[in-house]
Each structure stands twice: as structure tokens, then as C-alpha cells.
Design goal:
Layout: H1 19-31, H2 34-38, H3 44-63
Helix pairs in contact: 1-3
């Protein structure tokens, strides 16, 4: 079932986690590829939305000092 949220208004999300969790998630996002999102998406548009969100989270983690090589 495709996403029902059509509103493209930006959303700011704050969360708290352990440093080890932040680093591990940054590692995960570094390794994730489009095919990982595509295999779990309803369609290509949904996969692109998920990938864009992952890139935004990765950027926020980078700004917080979690940028694995």
C-alpha cells in the first residue's frame, strides 16, 4: 500500500540515543544502498523517499560528529 502522506512540509525530529547506537546507525546508513530501500518499498517513488530520509539522517549524524569512514 503506497504512502498516504502527500504533504511535503519539512519535519524536524529530535531523538536521543547512546553514542554507540548513533555510531552503529551511521555505519548502517553508510552501507545502505538504494537496492536495500527498493526491496522494501511499494514502488520506486517510495524507495526514493526512504533513501532521501536516510540521507537526511546521515547528514544530521555527520553534523553531530558521527561520520564513519
Amino acid at each position: 500500500m503506497p504512502s498516504k502522506i502527500e504533504d511535503e512540509t519539512p519535519v524536524e525530529i529530535h531523538f536521543t540515543c547512546q553514542k554507540q547506537e548513533a555510531y552503529a546507525f551511521a555505519q548502517f546508513l553508510k552501507r545502505a544502498q538504494y537496492s536495500d530501500f527498493e526491496s522494501r518499498a511499494y514502488d520506486e517513488e517510495d524507495a526514493s523517499r526512504m533513501m532521501n530520509a536516510a540521507e537526511s539522517i546521515q547528514s544530521a549524524l555527520r553534523e553531530a560528529g558521527f561520520s564513519p569512514r
